[in-house]
Amino acid sequence: MKKLLFLTVPIAIVSAFLIFTSVSQASAPNLKLSTTSTSGNVQLVVSGALANNNVLLYYHQTDGSSHLQYLGKTDSAGAYTVIIKAGEYNITPSDSVHVIINKQSSNSVTWPISTSSNGAIALSPTSVVLKVGQSTNLTVSNTGNKILYLLNNSNPQIANINILGQQITVLANSFGQTVATVCTLGTTSNCASTYITIQNSGAQVLTFSQSNLTVAAGQHSLVSILNAQSTANYSILNNSNPRVISASLQGTVIDLKALANNGSASLTVCSADLSSCGIINAQVGNISSTALTFSQTNPNFLIGQSVNISLNGGSSYNVSTNSNSAVVQASITNSNQLTLVGQGTGSATITVCASNGNCGSLTATVSYATSGPITLSQNNLWLRAGQAISITVSGGSRPYSLSNASTKAQTIFQTNLQNNILTINGIKAGSGTIDVCSAGGACTQLAVLVNGLSSNKQLSFSNNNLKLKVGSSAQVSIYGNGGYYLSSSNGQDVASIKLTGAKLDISAQKAGTANALICQSGGQCQTLYLTVSANNSSNQPLSFSQNNPIISVGQNLSITLSGGLSSNYYLSANSNPTIVKAQVSSSQLSLSGKTTGSAVLTICSATNSCASLAVKINSSSNQSATKSSSNSQQSVKNQAQAMLVAIAHQSQLISSSNLNSILSAVQTPRSSAQEQLTDQKYLAKYLKNTNLTNTDKDNLTYFITYGTKDALKLGAGERAGVIGSYLEAYGHLPTTTANWSDVLKIANGRWPGATSPQAISEAKSEFIKVYNRPADMNNSHDANAITLIAYGLRPLKRNLHSEEQAIRTFKSVYEHAPVNSLAWNIVRAIAYSGASR
């Protein structure tokens, strides 16, 4: 922590000086106060201090807040004198003040006169903890009628602070602390302050046994840090009202004492490196005499079993302490219910407190079941309303039974247990739990989430493995339930990652790797990975010793490669390897004509600088070569015909909805969990505004989950992408055998049987954007590109180098990464069609 950080913060965090800075060995300064001939003015005289050092005045304002005010500097003799005008700082009458010079406090002196006020103001909240990139609004109240203004933002590089009327907006910029001070117009004394702490985006929020509590006048109350790290040191960085409630910290326990009969205070507690912070709000008030009681005081239960205990005497309960969380997991549910779950054998003492300050304790004992543990094939179940899923119960001893399902849970899902098969039927949107127990007493908990929509949405990205160059940027779309937030990020110096709504704006800053953990409402999270490489804009372009070579069938040719800041090269793509054989060795490209035709070769250097070479192969008088070419072409035709026959059979299999036959064809067992994941992750976005029958929906689920014999080379995500390409091309999802035949043709790189004039027209428009010219449909390469863009045909054999180069080309044309089916169709056209500008 830099020392400079604390030179402008209020007195409420003076204790932080003692933690983060060393104390000077200089002698303490002397302070004297006296009234002047001018009514209300005070003369302040300092002596015995170090020469040429800042003088800071410590005082309380009438609103109860504490402040450090810079006055000036001592002279060469270590003295300082100033006249403070009446009401200038709105100092509390008869309060003790002192000065701090070179981190040394003077003697305390009572303020000699009263101050004046023109309407008290107050900020709420008085303490704020944010992560970098977060924002919040504060409310300012004013009993007077004067306009409010922002007097000071003590550390503006930490946060942007703006005031509009009675609302203050705080935007966290960087790690550190600052203070916002608001005053009434025309004065610098009638003011209020809020203390703002900014953590890194991956920082942890501290949790406490009580974060909102009441302390009786003259009494103590203890608050524990629940998620404290054993290696961390904690301190109280700010107390907004130390004259009302004093606070001290020993280890991970904060001792609060009420010094006044009423009032409130807000405390900011942080680790030494500000990696974990939290706020405690406390007020002084009367403590109810009603004791906190439990419906059970000494419960005994088994590992895996849960017990619900009702609470009485107060409200807003919290678990204050748990002596052994390895034995019992304790939490507050349904506002007035303590839920205990057995984790291991032994005993634990649980203390629960109410917001009015009342606390009570119970002792829970957990033991082994007599017949061993019980297990479920799934412990966390997601399903749709109206859907039924069966799971298997094993272990323990039979018969099995169900218990502890709340009334609310019974309205969300229904259960049916037959022997060791438990069937869950979704009723309506919501979540709940139920205990499954064996005859020997062992229990385990099943958590059930029912989504009232057609499917649950798993969080995903339009691209979760980005590759950028320094200085470039990209935007990634997020898909899921909504309510997204950036949980943590690594490599902030490598790339700037900002979240706006359902979009991530990413700017590459230096070479390296970075990642960001993005979460959504409901708690599901996914990690976005990013690689940034050096900007090679200064590279010499890769070039060939001969451009557009023409050779005959059977003829060989060697071409020298140069440029690209490298002497090592590789063949990235060959649009037609049946036409020409191409090999790269060091800086030599070897060509061998195979059959008549043309091909486009993409050659790249080790620094990923690439260039394309058009090669034409003429006919040869060599009859054996002609015969070989004819045989090769016939073989290709035979393979294509066999593929079409297989596609016809497999499309009938999918459209028949015969799951057993589908599973037999791909030789895999059924997985309800994988089918459910397919519905959640892929089908949700396709089924919006559709009128499909349940059978048609099942066919989609089966195809994406299990595939067909000739679609197994594609993963589930890529098969889902094929469905997206079909929907993009034809405007509807597949329902008939003919539809499924075209889906399988797209998946296997074959032209579909049905024509979509609209898709072709759109493809021609996109072709012009990419190649800066209209497509020539008499040119086989251009025709290939149009078909790839229109229908999204998948290549029979992928070339990742070509695809990477195609993605770079796409970004340069469209100025964003490919994020939908049409965009990826265009990428494949660039990579595999052979079309060129």
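Second entry:
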Amino acid sequence: MGTPVCATEAPRPNIVHIFADDLGYGSVGFNGQTQILTPNLDALATGGMNFTNAYAAAICGPARAMLYAGFHNGHTLVDRNQNLNGFGGAFRDDGQTVGDYLQAAGYNTALFGKGGFGGTNGSGNLKPNPWIDDPFSLPNRQGFETFYGYIDHGRAHSYKIDSLWTTEEPADDDFDGVDEVGEKYYDFSLEGLWLEKTGNHSGNNAVNYSADLIADRTVEYIRSRAGGDQPFYVEHASTIPHFDIHAILDEPDWFVPYLDHPNTDNWGYNEWAYAAMITRMDRHIGQIVASLRDPNDDGDESDSIMDNTLIIFTSDNGPTTADNAPMWFFDANGEKRGGKRDLWDGGINVPMIAYWEGVIEPGTTTDVYTDLPDFMPTALELAGTRGPVGMDGVSIAPLLSGQGIQRHKNWIIQEHHEWNGPDGDSLNPRWAIIKDDYKLIKYSNGTLRLYDLIADPDENNELNIASNQSMVDELTKIALAEGVEREDSYTVEFQTWDGSHGALLQDPTHWSGTAGATDPVENWSALINNTTGEDRSVETLYVNVNLLGVEVRGDNGKQTLRVNRGRGVTGRNEVRISEGGRINMDAGHLISVRWVDILDGGELTGQGNVLADVYNDGTIAPGLPDDLGQPRREPQPLVIAPGATPPSDTDQLIAPVVTLEQEADQYLATTNPSFAVLDSTGRLNIDGNLFNTADSRIVIDLGGTDISDAVNPEHDHVVVTGAASLAGGLEIALIEGYTPTLGSSFEVLVANTIHGEFDPTEVDVPALADAGNHAVTLALLYEDYGIDDNPDRDIVRLLVTYRGDFNGDQMVNGSGDLTILTLNWLSHNASWQDGDANGDGLVNPTDLAALTLNWLAGTPTGGADGIPEPTSLVLLGLGGLVIARRRRSV
């Protein structure tokens, strides 16, 4: 369940992501390191938020794929470093990375440092003559319009190379016999890249430390973009402290930060070099911060952009002992077990800071679980856009900005298919899952190990598998469903439906994208978008459809997805209903292990079951929309493409549903076969939690009297098994020809717990005919006590009652109601205060007339007219305006 967070609103920020390479959790001062100096990072941590449960990957390539794609390694092409360019490339040219989406949102995008995909290594000390072998995976093809750095992991192991790749055409060589920074080395302009000299050459390969050159370019870029019309996203992917640790010893000032540092007498060259290069990276970070704080570098910080820039710092994996790196000497893993290539926390739990001046409260520490796929949805939410549906990442923007609802991350998934890391245990890890503070690791020989990360943070006391078999089975089932044991080529596929009006969702001939024409399958990020200019709908009929994510959108014309009787549509990670989109439940099932998102302009309509949390920023309307005909009653023939697998009625759903035959029998036994009731009524069950935003609406049609049959209600309503957080509008409409009688009541929304209330100024109820001489209205009641033999239910109810009963005693008289009206009238209270008898949003003399109408007509009482006496725990509103607040705090 999401956690509400509140703070002041901030504009779209610049985003600077700093990515260290092989930096362990304990390698920095803010996580307890006392020997290695990281003053700039420590200052960011002191002024920002420190994450204690931030996770990356076990090795470099998969970490970067997770960061850029928003998916974990069960759903990316990069499962290991050995296949960085395998199976058609680490990435495809499908425009689905964080850089692609931020560019489309109006951001300038840049990557400086280790891109890591698309190129060959080069050989020799200076790594000359590298080449491009995977154009699709190049940074400039993956959303970064500006790039300077490495496109190969192997070449990025060296700091004294002769050239770096760039998207800015360098100056021609002046042939003066001196290789200089900024001179052209080789032209790959057909791919949008050039090789630029670094100044290092065979006569002197110690002129420039590549990490310094990369930092300089990052700073130059920020200074050139600061204060511009477009926000920017900068990825500073440092190669420190990965490999070649002794290269720093060639720099003339490498030792300066440690001249007065105590307790270094027992250090050797490995310790000196390792500490010095991490401090060198920290100096680069200080330079980046300075460029944000004083962009024109004139000493006057009035041009600072720090208050509109989010800085996130983290690492790609844990520390290593490779190349003599002294990780044990410095406790670089933070005394956690293992390091790089281990799936114990020493290999995957990494340092992370978020700094946003004036937005993030200084000195904050959080134990919220997060991992690298979370960066993309976070950045996109802050930019005011969204990425492909069904990403594994969960945005932490609400946690950072203090706005909105922070959604819960169900689990963290890790894969690793190479050799073991520095831990003494020789088992090679294969995958791990973290859920509810427990971690299950599976090794390549089939061994399973289970750990309690709270009671055993260093993972040295594994739990007994047999004693925890049910947990092990659950975690294993989840991990397998997330694709951890699929082949390397298994990845998310981006598919688009382009069928005509009335076509079937499961028909493979209507899908196109990276997977080609096949039956919809569980690794699809599927988009159903209408661009035709005419409204259209697509149906599921009698086949369950299981997808990783599904979005229904209408860019040019309304797009409806109808979920038919007893059938289920599953978006494992997400079901998204965007502007112009509508999902109509024809007694079907909508399923996600995470959530259904109803965005502004999206609609969820009809009656059926939603097995997920629902985040509503659009419209929920349980009734059958006027423009949709009745659901089909008989199976329709399904055209199957040649070679495709026919769909089965026994397709497995995440949550079980009854068979078509059972569901049909139950449905026909309780519902009029003519479907007359479905024209005006509907029950929408949400098996989860409901979160309404201030812009949301719930639309209810009234077409009967009291609820007497939970299976066959006589008006629309919503039933929530968890908590309902109310906000936004409530719209009530009467079915043509129906008039509710005085004393009638209608359950609009039932939940285990209700928090908040509908905005009283956004509640729209129809006018009712007067009962005799008495003005009658629909009153809104919030009841938070148990009724109907269920002590746990909270209810929002509509009651047909008299206008003017301000004190809720079911009597309209001078001793009670007139006193309340007068007190509010004289004190000029606002619209939602007691005394707005005519519902015009004001408390003034015109309300006296509305009150007098009932008062002079004979002082009606509850007993005489059959109006139920409200209890003391009732919140009563007339015409959507709250007039008695006696509800417990929640």
